[in-house]
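Study this one:
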Amino acid sequence: MDTTPARAHPPHVASAPEHRPNDYTELSRMVTASGLMRRRYGYYWTRLIAAPVALAALVVAFVAIGDTWWQLLTAVALAIALTQVAMLGHDAAHRQIFRSGRWNDWTTLVIGNLLVGMSYGWWQHKHTRHHANPNKIGSDPDIDLPVISFTPDQADRRRAARRGPLGWLMAHQGVLFFPILLLEGLSLHASSVRRVFSREPLRRRPVEIAFIMLRIIGYLALVFLVLSPGIAFAFLGVQLGLFGVYMGMAFAPNHKGMPLVPADVKVDFLRRQVLMSRNIRGNRFLDTVMGGLNYQIEHHLFPSMPRPHLRAASGMISAYCGQQGVAYTQTGLWQSYGIVVRYINRVGLGERDPFDCPLLQQRRAV
């Protein structure tokens, strides 16, 4: 069932209605029997070889072009390439590429820390919490950010401390969301460095530190050796800014503006993942641009499903959700951005949601 929510502000999720306890078990059996969980070694080996080759080609082009403002075009290409490589690392971290957990771990370390400059351990800790409880207040780190308020309670706390221009900005925070993403690339690198040098537990800390320092220091050294200071800073600004915007625009449509789960509410796995996620309609080109993240429902239900199988799985899962009476939401890409902006603005304005949540509507129908 395709649904295109007109509302901009998501409801809270009420207690789950009565349902068969094996809803997800049955779906899992169907998906596994269809062969959609099998590995796609040819698909991934092609990309694992292409990724470093593409980055090496960009480095060669960067050195050959030399100290010129035309390097800003190289910065754009590098931002796009690094985002695509990071998405490949996301697949490896979810055990989509190899059967061996060790092979997936080392692939992610090389891609994430060495090629992209992001800590695998930091990302894994944060992202695992998100997958376990998407949009759950107090549990999902993706709705607990220091700048943007995603829940009414966050907005209430911050509104009390902000007056004048800051209060106005908070009331219109939706229009600031995408410009703020220009800083996301820098934030990802900074968070990674903080984590690898923190006292928090981290597997393979020496490897993470060595890879991420080699990547960051080596990259900065190359940029300032080839470019004069002014062009170098402009290059880094364009590359880091576009990298953050691209990453944010791929991840933002997936859950923002979908139902929020109160901290004390328990929801079964199928509904927890489907009702809080949004798919983005599109063609195979969009699948590539978004790294498969446009199939967010399928990815949350089956995180280790190889990316090329997500499109085929979406029809089966959509039909199954329809049979179970579970709302399966998908929208167009630009429509999803509009939903996100309107929702964030309404949270900033302090509006409380006037709509019932899907689970509450189901309970009333029983």
Q: What stands out?
A: The mean pLDDT is 86. The beta strands are 279-280, 330-331. The chain has two domains: 23-39+256-365, 41-252. DSSP finds 17 helices and two strands in the chain.
